From TrEMBL:
Protein known as: NAD(P)-binding domain-containing protein
Pfam families hit by this protein: GDP_Man_Dehyd
Domain NAD(P)-binding, residue spans: 6-28
Species of origin: marine metagenome
UniProt-listed InterPro entries: NAD(P)-bd_dom, NAD(P)-bd_dom_sf
Length: 28
């Protein structure tokens, strides 16, 4: 589920920023 969110959200600047936040919290 988390991976799908990262892939889908990674398309935009907001998505990229969200990925950075998730990575800081230990998500991959």
């Amino acid at each position: 589920m988390t991976t799908n969110i990262l892939v889908t959200g990674g398309a935009g600047f907001i998505g990229s920023h969200t990925i950075d936040l998730l990575l800081e919290h230990g998500y991959k």
